[in-house]
Write a structure and sequence with these properties.
The structure holds two protein chains of two kinds. Chain A is mostly helical. Chain A contains ten helices and no strands. In chain B, the strands form three sheets. A twelve-stranded mixed beta sheet of chain B has the order 7-8-9-10-11-1-2-3-4-5-6-12. Chain B has an eight-stranded antiparallel beta sheet with strand order 13-15-16-17-21-20-19-18. Chain B is globular, with a radius of gyration of 26 Å. Classes of the chains: A mainly alpha, B alpha+beta. The interface between A and B is large, with 55 and 41 residues.
Chain lengths: 186, 441
């Protein structure tokens, strides 16, 4: 029942796009449920980072949950509320790497992990594209993920990231150029 | 008009797809971990939540040690001079940084629950400590190696319990430098002075949040703590530390985890390493468990039964858990979990199980109780089973009706029962009556 009420709360809140900064401040002000907006907003992006590092959908899901909980825990230390997206992506990568490290340190030989191959992952072409996205600058990565993975319009991305539409447009354009170069190099 | 790259990015986004379980999963975890606490205040209790779930003796000692260290370093703001005791908190931190080892007396006063005995705690470093309890028992904890070891010695009974946690270490608990850095940002209140044994002490108070209230009394001459009081309102307990001695002298053998000759030794092994998920037999379960193993015998409505071993999701997939999956003729999936954790920490488990609602009492004497976080427990166990045996259960079919019952068999064996869909008490009774002991071939 609690889960259902949280989802209902989220659906109500998402009707108006609030910037990351506004949502972060709401959470810090005691509105814990508002954090669900950020989770919903970034869950694909965070899982994408996990998939790229871990090559496993299930592990990426676990890493994503860890990352969001860690972000919630550390939210008070975030200096610029509007930087939440970039900050979260760094946390996501670290959480995914933690899982890699845990597996490496475990009794399971690394060879077995690799040999097991990707579980329910992407085809080669998409995997190459995802890897290229991961190599973008944090600010560009954020707008690309919000735009294409989470399906927000440029205007909505600007609202979420607390940037102007012009800035987001330029960042997307730069990201496209960089992606083309990275894909050619790959 | 979207170009080729944009189309490919769109396709990639669709391939990643949404995962509807993330939002409720994260919010559930946050609710459980931070219930009643303000956001962004990573408290000591948060850090210990997972280990509290396990409730091992070992981790209780570690938890106490964390609190001691945290209390020592938990107040770190500069202050002015009061009543002639001219010490700033920064000087205290600076002094503390000169010492790696210390001893103190620790007392815990709880509002509810059994009294905890006072103990002398010797901190050799962040990985090794010795606790001399007033009931005469001695605990030695060593987390330097991959296998962390906790030894409990009962000299009067000549008995010892050795707990080996494979893959738990090496561990420093906690990261003192990081904690000092964090607390430097917090405000500290000066309390003035008080006299103790003819000595003037200077007080500091620090409340990182409404659930932790630290008071530290410092000797102005040494600039080191003399008394520390930590009121842990969330847990309804207060921890008192005093009789501090920094750079104590103690023979290194006092920190040895070797049990002296003449002791009767009980060894508990907890394996924290990752586990390879695979199908197993009832005999495998019997041979791995250190207590009675059970399997499902005759159950009229069971269409299919499968047994797997996998990492224990209750311990972040560390340690083994043995899952028996039952597919019912009406499409329900039920998972029964058995592990050594249930017997190693039986006392702690029973502590809370018996406070839950008794749902079913079978003729055999087996009892089924509710679980305080049954939906999440069931999600974790069903998900683990689905990962280990995807043909048997697809996590996409996880139901909102899922629930957990804790089974306490007549011989005291504890198991978990997680069902994906609702079950009647009659079905639960039939299922628990069908459980039979796995005997050696």
């Amino acid at each position: 029942m609690q889960v259902l009420s949280l989802e209902t709360c989220f659906l109500k809140d998402i009707s108006v796009v609030r910037s990351d900064g506004e949502v972060v401040n709401a959470v810090l002000g005691g509105d814990r449920k508002a954090f669900a907006i950020l989770v919903k907003r970034y869950e694909r992006s965070v899982r994408a980072i996990g998939m790229c590092v871990l090559r496993d959908r299930h592990l990426a899901q676990d890493a994503a949950q860890d990352a969001f909980v860690k972000a919630y825990r550390k939210l008070g230390s975030l200096r610029k509320a509007h930087s939440f997206g970039s900050w979260l992506m760094k946390i996501s990568r670290r959480c995914a790497l933690d899982i890699v490290r845990q597996r490496r340190e475990s009794a399971l030989p690394e060879g077995d992990f690799v040999a097991a191959g990707p579980v329910g992952l992407l085809d080669d072409e998409k995997e190459r594209l995802l890897a290229a996205v991961m190599r973008l600058r944090e600010s560009e990565k954020q707008v690309v993920m919000l735009r294409y993975f989470d399906g927000y319009s440029v205007k909505e991305v600007a609202g979420i990231a607390g940037r102007s539409v012009g800035t987001v447009t330029k960042q997307l354009s730069r990201a496209h150029r960089r992606l083309r170069v990275l894909l050619r190099e790959a | 008009m979207k170009d080729d790259l944009e189309k490919r990015l769109d396709e990639l986004g669709r391939a990643i797809g949404p995962d509807d379980s993330i939002v409720p999963g994260v919010m559930k975890r946050i609710d459980e971990e931070f219930a009643g606490r303000p956001v962004g205040t990573e408290t000591l209790t948060n850090k210990l939540s997972i280990r509290r779930l396990i409730m091992s003796r070992f981790t209780r000692y570690a938890a106490a040690a964390v609190i001691i260290i945290a209390a020592l370093i938990g107040i770190s703001q500069f202050g002015g001079s009061i009543d002639g005791a001219n010490v700033a908190w920064g000087q205290v931190v600076e002094q503390l940084n000169n010492y790696t080892k210390y001893k103190c007396r620790q007392r815990v006063v709880r509002q509810k629950g059994p009294e905890l005995p006072a103990m002398q705690v010797y901190h050799l470093n962040l990985s090794q400590r010795r606790q001399e309890v007033e009931d005469g028992s001695i605990h030695v904890i060593d987390m330097r190696g991959e296998v962390a070891i906790a030894v409990e010695l009962y000299p009067d009974k000549k008995k010892a319990t050795v707990t080996k946690l494979i893959g738990f270490g090496p561990r420093k608990d906690p990261d003192i430098i990081e904690m000092v850095k964090r607390f430097e940002q917090e405000s500290t209140e000066k309390l003035g002075t008080k006299k103790k044994d003819g000595k003037t002490l200077q007080g500091f108070r620090h409340r990182p949040n409404e659930y932790n209230d630290f008071t530290v009394w410092v000797d102005p001459d040494t600039k080191l703590p003399v008394e520390i009081e930590l009121v842990h309102t969330g847990q309804g307990q207060t921890i008192f530390l005093d009789q501090f001695e920094f750079d104590f002298e103690l023979d290194p053998s006092a920190f040895s985890t070797d049990v002296p000759d003449g002791y009767e030794v009980k060894t508990i092994i907890q394996d924290y390493r990752s586990v390879e998920a695979k199908e197993i037999t009832a005999e495998d379960i019997r041979s791995e468990l250190n207590h009675t193993a059970y399997t499902v015998d005759k159950l009229a409505w069971a269409k299919k039964i499968s047994m797997v071993q996998t990492g224990n999701p209750l311990m972040r997939n560390k340690g083994k858990v043995y899952l028996t999956g039952i597919l019912s003729d009406d499409g329900n999936v039920i998972v029964i979990d058995q592990s050594n954790m249930h017997s190693d920490y039986k006392e702690a488990f029973m502590g809370w199980i018996v406070k839950e609602e008794l749902v079913v009492e079978a003729d055999s004497g087996a009892k089924l109780y509710t679980h305080p976080n049954g939906s999440e427990y069931a999600r974790l166990l069903l998900k683990s089973f689905g990962k280990a045996n995807p043909e048997f259960f697809d996590i996409k079919n996880l139901s909102e009706e899922r629930f957990t019952r804790m089974i306490v068999m007549s011989d005291g064996t504890i198991m978990g029962l997680s069902a994906n869909k609702a079950m009647s008490n009659k079905e639960l009774q039939e299922l628990v009556e069908s459980l039979i002991e796995v005997k050696a071939n």
